[in-house]
Amino acid sequence: MNVIEINKALSNETRLKILNWLKSPEENFPPHKDLGHFNDGVCVQYIKEKTGLSQSTISHFLSLMQKAGLITPTRHGKWTYYKRNEQMIKSYLQYLSKEL
After folding, report:
1. If you ran DSSP here, which 8-state letter would residue 43 be given?
2. What CATH number did the domain enclosing 35 receive?
3. Which residue range(s) make up the domain with 21?
C-alpha cells in the first residue's frame, strides 16, 4: 500500500465523490443495460455523465485511483467498469487509525 498515492488520489473532491458513488452503485447510477448488474462495477460512461467532466479528465482521475489501488477495472468488450477495492480501502483506514 502506498499511502502517498492514496492521499493524492483522495485530494480531489470529484475523485472522492466517485469513490463514494461506487460504494452504492445501484443508488447512484442507472441500471446497466448490457450487464444488468453492478458486480463488475460501473461503466466509465456512467461515471463521466454523472460528473459532467470530459472523457479525458475522467480517464485521468480513474487512472490515478487505480494506480493508488482504490478501484479495480474489469473489461467487457470495449467498455471498462470500475468498482471499489474494499480491501485496500480497509487497509488504508486501518493504517491511518494505527499510525495517526
Report:
1. E
2. 1.10.10.10
3. 3-99
Q: Which three cell numbers stand for residue 92?
A: 488504508
Give the torsion sign (CA, 30, 33, 37, 42).
Answer: negative
> How far is the C-alpha of 57 from the C-alpha of 39, rounded, in Å?
25
Query: What domain count does the chain have?
Result: 1
At residue 52, the pLDDT reads 96
The predicted-structure confidence for 10-57, as pLDDT tens digits, reads as follows 999 999 999 999 999 999 998 877 777 889 999 999 999 999 999 999
How far is residue 91's CA from residue 84's CA, in Å, rounded to a whole number?
13
DSSP assignment of 53-87 equals --HHHHHHHHHHHHHTTSEEEEEETTEEEEEE-HH
**What pLDDT score was predicted for residue 35?**
75
Residue-level length of the chain:
100
User: Dmax over Cα atoms in the chain, in whole Å?
Assistant: 44
Amino acid identity of residue 59, one-letter, is: S
